[in-house]
Amino acid sequence: MNASFPHHTNYFPPIPALSLILRAADSNRLQGPLPAIIDTGADITLVPLTILELIGAPEIDEVRLRSHWGGMTTATTYLIDIQLGVDTLPAVEVVGDLYGDAVLLGRNVINKLVLLIDGPLQSTDLLTRRPPAF
Questions:
Q1: Most C-beta atoms within 10 A of its C-beta, which of 16, 19, 57, 123?
Q2: Coil, strand, or helix at residue 8?
Q3: Which residues in the chain belong to E strands, given as ranges?
Q4: Residues 75, 5: Cα–Cα separation, whole Å
Q5: Would you say the pTM of this structure is higher than 0.85?
Q6: CA-CA distance, 105 to 96, in Å (whole number)?
Q7: pLDDT digits (tens, 9 = 90+) for 41-96
């Protein structure tokens, strides 16, 4: 199933985003639909800690993260399922974000998706298959 999502206009310029539902792995507790910013520069997906606590996501590990400014911090990772339309990505490791209020989709999720980001139309399409070459 293809799905189209408008860019998030709370940012200037507008930023590519998807809508998703987050669920604790092996649980019925969920949050969403939530906007999720597509961040191709992020290695891993960040989810506000408040959302992870609401769904009861299990803690997995402690990791060291480097910000885009070069600073290091320690963070906790959690295991969740990410639902995009009718499809679910099971058992995705995400970082609990203590300070942010937005879901940032990192490459650990983006690299599992076929996306068409259309800047002029300010929309992002989640595709079921790769389109023919341009």
A1: 57
A2: strand
A3: 3-6, 17-24, 30-38, 46-48, 59-66, 72-84, 87-97, 103-105, 114-118, 123-127
A4: 30
A5: yes
A6: 12
A7: 999 999 999 999 999 999 999 999 887 778 888 999 999 999 998 889 999 999 99
Give the whole-angstrom CA distance, residue 69 versus residue 45: 18
Cα 127 from Cα 118, distance rounded (Å): 13
Confirm if 51 and 31 have CB atoms less than 8 A apart.
yes
Helix (H) / strand (E) containing 109: helix 107-110
Distance of CA 66 to the CA centre of its chain: 18
* Contact assessment for residue 44 and residue 28, using Cβ atoms and an 8 Å cutoff: no
